[in-house]
Amino acid sequence: MTGLCIEWLQLERSPPSRWALPGASSRLRSKSGLRSNLTTSVKFKMLKLNKLNEAKIKAAANRSRLVFFVGDKTESQELSEHEQLNLNKSLSALLINMPKSERARSVERLVSSLISDASADEVVINGLEILFDRSLAIDPVRLLEACSKNKTLLVSWPGDKTKSGLSYALPGHPEYRSYKPSDLSDVILLESDDAIY
Questions:
Q1: Integer Cα distance of 22 and 42 in angstroms
Q2: Residue range 105-145, pLDDT digits in tens
Q3: DSSP secondary structure letters along the chain
Q4: pLDDT on residue 101
């Protein structure tokens, strides 16, 4: 994807983490890696409340209060009761009228402001796909770490947990990212089987 276009900003993106390269599937939009079947709901596999609380306690002891949910996802009543922030929607609404030349310089400030403006101390963050757009020139994990000093962020990771850490998209995809365990020292990973790492 060569830049943020108005059409892209008005859509919610589905993650390319398990896809082939752009253009390899008829379900993908050429060049952008976008799907036509877009989703708006926060979904997690059933989480036991004590596991979620344990994860939040562990996160509170870190410099950054980050909990990432990874793996298969289904509805979770516990998380639906938290304040929600969809970055695909909220951030794109702020960027869409901004000149392209200013977007990369403004995105960190805008994301920080969106999170700070949330009234709750614990916020579910979903719709991270926009942060992986290369034209924004940011590291999504580092940005969320910086924004989680004063709030606990419960983040729906749109990629995969691998043997070597976390990944988003496939190698060769323009939005591919990978993170080693050493990159995630302040992140609590809560998988769909309720295990906490």
A1: 25
A2: 999 999 999 999 999 999 999 999 999 999 999 999 999 99
A3: --S--HHHHTSPPPP-TTS-STTSSTTBPTTT--BSS---S-------HHHHHHHHHHHHTSSS-EEEEESS----HHHHTSEEEEHHHHHHHHHTTS-HHHHHHHHHHHHHHHHHT-SSSEEEEE-GGGGG-GGG---HHHHHHHHTSSSEEEEE-SSEEETTEEEES-TTSTT-EEE-GGGGTTEEEEETT--B-
A4: 93
d(CA 160, CA 90): 24
- Could you tell me which residues are beta bridge partners of residue 67? 154, 188
Question: Does residue 145 contact residue 66 with C-beta atoms inside 8 Å?
Answer: yes
CA distance 56 to 97: 36
Residue with tokens 């609380």: 53
What is the phi/psi pair of residue 135, to 5°?
Answer: -70, -20
Can you tell me the distance from the alpha carbon of 30 to that of 83, in angstroms, rounded to the nearest whole number? Answer: 34
Instruction: Give whole-number Cα distances, 177 to 133, 155, 169, 171, in Å.
Output: 11, 16, 7, 8
